[in-house]
Amino acid sequence: MAGGMLGVAILLIGWQMLAQALYQGRLIAGPVGIVEWLGRDPGLALRALARTLGNAAAGFALGNLAAILLAGIAFLWPRLQDLVTGLALVAFCLPLIATGPILRVLMGPGEGPQIVLAALAVQYTTLIPLLTGLRAVPAAWLDLIHSYGRGRWVELAHIRARAALPYLFAGLQIGAPAAVLGAMVGEFTGAERGLGVLTIRYMRDLDVPALWGVALLAAGASLAAYWAIGGLARLVLDTRPPVLLAPPMRQLRTGRVVGGLTLALAVLLLWWGGLWLTGLNPFLAKGPWDVLAALVWAPDATQMRAALFGALRESAGLAVPGYLAGLAAGAGLAILLTLLPGAGPLVMPVAVALRAIPIVTTGPLIVLFLGRGALGTITLVAVMVFFPTLVACLHGLRQAPGHILDLLRVHAAGPLSQMIHVRIPAMLPALFAAARISVPTAILAVTVVEWLATGRGLGSLMALAASTSDFRMLWSAVALITLLAVLCHAVVAGLERRVLARYAPEQLRQ
């Protein structure tokens, strides 16, 4: 605890010095300037914080309950697993800057859009680690259950639910800042109160201390939730991870093809059925046929495709290097903190703060500091990917079997040898879970930065389409981004199957 407080103190001191060094506070506001802003009107800030946290908490609860329910369905009925996870991925891939205005039209000026966006932001980040945890069970335990004639319900209640707890807590910690981000994006679309509303106001006024004050409030709330979930995990998780032994598993490629076709059909049916049930105005709501027509045979289809694919090339060129850099930084820092545990209390507050401060608040300022070119956008994408990777990998490294580590210590193996031969293989399922989560996260990050700061790429194109009521372009961009995310996710999942077939074959078991 003392180390954590020291880390926070070092962060605050370095922050104040940086603020003074860079343009005398005209770009970055230090803690002193933020405290002065809070002192001028604490009631306004606290009321906005309470409104945003209420929406984020409601979305956090709903999203995680949905993730737990979907994980249970996917486990109890294995044939539905690809469909369930695929639909959850599609929902997570929907760009917040596009779905926010649509939800505002559907749900009106209340709190509904904020809660829905917060729920969408967390459901997938919990579902994927939870499914990974449900499979992290020794085969001998399952054989024992089956020898008594018990089925999957007993497996789930007595073995798998317990095994999944470390991964569930990892997903909850990853989701806490994401819920705040989702709620603030919802407030950007026309809410009356909240931190997102204050952010818009202070961005227009160029009030740097107030803008950073809003960021600090959101980050503080996210940090508190992160630490609270971590404290609860330490109280609950009091057993050593078991040795996971499982026979090699093979999956038929034809099954994956059928699963992909089923998912595509389900998405199209849900898309069309949702529009039909809601009875939305055709000017606003575009269906699959409308998007296809706009891109293929409409009079302006050539210009539409040129605009979309030109923006896609620019966004992808920034998202891919940011994604890879974030994965490498998160996994590398997790390994370093495990080898040097004394550095954790000093480093973790900074690491969590980088992700806890919502990108919608600080993105424009960081892009202004690093430039509107590739460096600023890639950096922000890497920061968004870095945090879930770090948290997942830290939890994965802790899943190294204690008995195996004891055996290596008896033979005088040092921490580095233990890391290479035991901890990193145990971390691989968590790393790939983070890699899959981070695919849509990277796309979200690049589109938000383009929307708020750079004025280029798919994010800017969608914002322009929404502001000019060009709903053909908006829905086409959403469909293209979702398809891109699903394809990239499939590539990562294919690599995951190849690696885990050797190092963690229990993860391929249904």
Automatic annotation (TrEMBL):
Gene3D superfamilies: MetI-like. InterPro entries: MetI-like, MetI-like_sf. It comes from the Bacteria. One of its GO terms (biological process) is transmembrane transport. The chain crosses the membrane at residues 53-76, 83-103, 115-142, 163-185, 210-237, 257-277, 318-340, 352-371, 377-397, 428-453, 473-495. The keyword Transport applies. Residues 312-493 form the ABC transmembrane type-1 domain. It is a multi-pass membrane protein. It is found in: Cell membrane. It holds the Pfam family BPD_transp_1. GO terms for cellular component: plasma membrane. SUPFAM superfamilies: MetI-like. The keyword Transmembrane applies. Keywords: Cell membrane, Membrane, Transmembrane, Transmembrane helix, Transport. Belongs to the binding-protein-dependent transport system permease family. This is ABC transporter permease subunit. The lineage of its organism: Bacteria, Pseudomonadati, Pseudomonadota, Alphaproteobacteria, Rhodobacterales.
